[in-house]
Design goal:
two-stranded antiparallel sheet, single chain, 66% helix, globular
């Protein structure tokens, strides 16, 4: 495998441009009373998870890893800011669904513990798992909802998470240039994704049941997204496509467009090989 150099300055510019977006509002005139209460409870768990992530910023700034620089640390800062924006969007959705925000959840605490326990490389791996979770879950929810502002906001989150996925796979690909490192990554990745799948099926079983999403359907989509993320890290050819069609390569749920938003709008800032 050729050694790869990622242009972290382009990622910084990419996130900087996106940081200028206004926080959207949910149309309060829409009636969501027909949706199950479990949906708001499920989104509240994700909202709590999107609210953290600050410790990785200082770790990225202090890291001695050769393949990153100050631009990467700045991009991480902007990435965390975008995650916090997601938390605000989800909070709007939850309140309009008649739900309440939560301050503590066992799965969120477990995720935070895992991130704080590890070094930068494994921490990014855990964050990558969270992006796969978000892409899969938000997409499945959006596909089950009737046309609405809520549906389009979930589609927007999917697009944002796709960018995050490419950002993290760019980093992990620079850390898996040798065969043995790729083997270690694949083993750690598959174990992490298995654990994440079990946690979501347990913690969100109410919403999955009420929205008639079968566990087999969720796991099938999950496996497709996880395998694609794995390829983006371990296969430079897969990662070389600047517009990797994530949701087409995976087993798509219905259409790639949800309520006027295209899931494939993300354009990769790009990377160069030497």
């Amino acid at each position: 495998m050729q050694a790869e150099i990622v242009n972290w300055a382009r990622w910084q510019q990419f996130f900087k441009r996106r940081s200028e977006r206004q926080l959207p509002e949910l149309d309060t005139s829409e009636d969501y009373s027909a949706l199950p209460a479990s949906l708001a409870k499920s989104l509240a768990i994700f909202q709590l998870g999107e609210s953290g992530g600050g410790t990785i910023i200082e770790q990225a700034r202090q890291s001695l890893i050769d393949d990153i620089d100050s631009n990467y640390a700045n991009a991480i800062q902007l990435f965390v800011d975008e995650e916090h924006r997601h938390a605000e969007i989800l909070a709007i959705c939850i309140r309009n669904l008649g739900g309440n925000l939560i301050r503590r959840n066992w799965t969120s605490s477990l995720f935070v513990f895992a991130r704080r326990l590890f070094g930068l490389r494994l921490k990014v791996l855990v964050l990558l798992a969270a992006e796969v979770v978000g892409i899969c879950y938000y997409h499945l929810l959006a596909a089950r909802l009737p046309p609405s502002r809520l549906k389009s906001l979930l589609a927007q989150l999917v697009n944002d998470e796709r960018a995050h996925l490419h950002f993290h796979t760019d980093f992990l690909r620079t850390q898996t240039q040798s065969a043995w490192r790729r083997v270690v990554f694949v083993c750690a990745w598959r174990m992490t994704m298995l654990a994440a799948a079990l946690v979501v099926l347990i913690d969100h079983r109410g919403a999955l049941r009420d929205l008639h999403l079968r566990n087999a359907t969720v796991l099938r989509r999950w496996r497709s997204y996880a395998r694609l993320a794995e390829r983006l890290v371990t296969d430079s050819k897969s990662a070389s496509h600047s517009k990797s069609k994530l949701l087409e390569d995976a087993v798509a749920v219905g259409t790639n467009s949800v309520h006027g938003l295209n899931f494939l709008e993300f354009e990769h800032p790009g990377a160069s090989a030497t």
